[in-house]
């Protein structure tokens, strides 16, 4: 008498339940890891460079100069400089009275290079009225 091998559709190890269980287990274990990763803000120098070098009006000599300027804004935020002071500094450095251009550069630096400083920048902006 010969014994036929179990067919995949009748073998309990191959049932739908047993194929889905490992995926569900993986999803449940990955959930806390992804929640922790999503809570940590990461700097993105490439996004900053794309956004400020493509936009006309800043005229940075090169990518290093653009990054150095952005990091100087981050350092000023970390040292307690407020929104109005930073906007005035940018307007002076780029010889412009275009407030939008200054706030755009400041926002890009905060969002892309030092996202941990955004709360401080927002708080100081809420207390100011630039015109």
Structural class designation = mainly alpha
Mean pLDDT rating: 78
Count the strands?
0
Distance between the termini: 95 Å
Strand residue percentage? under 5%
Share of residues in helices: 55-70%
Uncertain parts: 23-39
Q: Helix tally?
A: 6
Describe the protein in words:
The protein is an all-alpha fold and 131 residues long. It has a domain at 45-129. It has helices spanning 16-39, 45-54, 63-78, 83-93, 99-113, 118-126. Helix 3 packs across helix 5 and helix 4 (83-93) crosses helix 5. The longest helix is centred in the first third of the chain and has 24 residues, at 16-39. Pfam families: DUF732. This is Protein of uncharacterized function (DUF732).
Key features?
6 helices; 131 residues; 0% strand; mainly alpha; elongated
What is the compact description of this entry?
Helix content is 65%, strand content 0%. It is mostly helical and 131 residues long. It comes from Mycolicibacterium aurum.
Secondary-structure map:
Blueprint: H1 16-39, H2 45-54, H3 63-78, H4 83-93, H5 99-113, H6 118-126
